[in-house]
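Bug: token stream looks shifted between consecutive jobs. Job 1:
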Amino acid sequence: MGLKKYIKEVKRNFAKVIFDKRASQNVALDFANVKKIVFLRHDDKLGDMIISTILFREIKKARPDIKLIVLSGKNNKEIIEANPYVDEICEWSRASVLKNIKTLWALRKQKIDVAVDFYIFKPMLAALFILRFVNAAFNIGFNKKGYNLYSHALNVDINNTHISLRYKALLDYLGIKTDNLKYEIFLMPEEEDKAQEFIKHIKQKHKIVLNPFAASRHRTFSNVKIMNIIEGIKAQIPDSAVIIISPLRRRNSVQNLHSYYKDFVFTPMLNTARDACAIVKYSSLMITPDTSLVHAARAYNSKMVAVYLDYSNTSEKINEVWGAQYDNAISLNVNSEGSWLKNNVDSIDTQLLIDTVKELLYKQG
């Protein structure tokens, strides 16, 4: 075990000793009497928040009277700020302990009936602290055997089953039967207008979004690969243009591509995560190695080519668990040939990528 993992494990064990104090409950949840429910999404992950919209919609449809509260991070709250099914958003701060205590105290005073922790491994220190402080009548977790703070733990397959089915398991437990696992991202009217205006000024018919960036360097296209993809699209797909979406910290590098390719590569100013989602919604197709935007494309049923690493030798099949899995999407997996060095999205064959884009772009329906 490496030093970082060892320190993390020590923190978790310490947190369990300090916060895992509640006597284990063997009572069933009476969902009919639940009035307030809080979801812990303080991990600040955009993709996870997008998938969570399944729950917000289906719970509100089944029980419109329930107050639905989300404890979010600074960034992922943008995904749900316009969501009509969410009654209250409380922001978890990574910088201010005092602010967090005030937030949790306000939640505690509301007398929450149910709290849901989505983390599927041993709970993090912050989650145990939150649950202990909020003191909901009933805590639900995933794969939390051995922890007394959770009133009920749902046992789920985290390695092979698609993430949406994990959320369906929660709905089933609450007694909400549905097959509607559609994600939803609601935009502000001004965000819709801004995206449509941007798209309208691109004269080419095929507006292809390229999102080259992901959370790790192995899942991020290099500058050389980006150029190769752009050149391939330019040479092989007539009447096309490339829209590169990027976080603000990467804007200077993508602006250089716009300067070089003039009226072929476009780089919109994106101030929020919803701005990026709006561009995805109104484009012709997207290429991405980033799973959060995979979920955004699925929310709008947008055409998409998703690129994944080679997970054939790992226990968690991320390309299966976090895959697109809808008709307008095609997934390409890196063939690393067992080499750690080759397990990089740059290893994907550029011609294969372009051919897949053409196949999907010209697909009817």
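Job 2, same session, no restart:
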Amino acid sequence: MAHLFEKDYQNIYSGKTRVSFDLDEVLFVCPDTHKTEPALPFPFNKLYKERFRLGTPDLIHQLQDMGVEVWVYTSSFRSENYIKKIFRHYGVKFDGIINGQRHLREVQAGHKEILPQKLPNKYGISLHIDDESVIAIHGRTYGFKVYQLEEQDDDWKEKILECVKSIQNNPS
């Protein structure tokens, strides 16, 4: 199965390290259970109710400063425009966004067998950050690297940066 999207991978791979983040419970978290960035000011806090995990904008900027392409890969059906706009309020711009609609259109379409809800290797993604253990299992099965983010973790940024540096130093 790991070779299923080899042609697509070769067509879009930029040669850069490419990292993707899930949204829910990874970048968007509940302030009751996680430390969060300050809420957006009124009226934007009424339009965008999601709260960012503390350190999200800083981590994304650090990765981009390291030459990493940063993407969103979510199974949610939030529009690409919505995702771009909420992150723009925090000074973040992504190199690519894959939402549920795009995944269905570009990954699942034309396949009779049901594929996993995320296949980062289809997009040349070097590392995907997610909270779901099933995604980590799919990574081993379908040949993509996953960093499984646990619940509240004050060192999450440093752990991800170390993982990315390891991939950059050993790109196999």
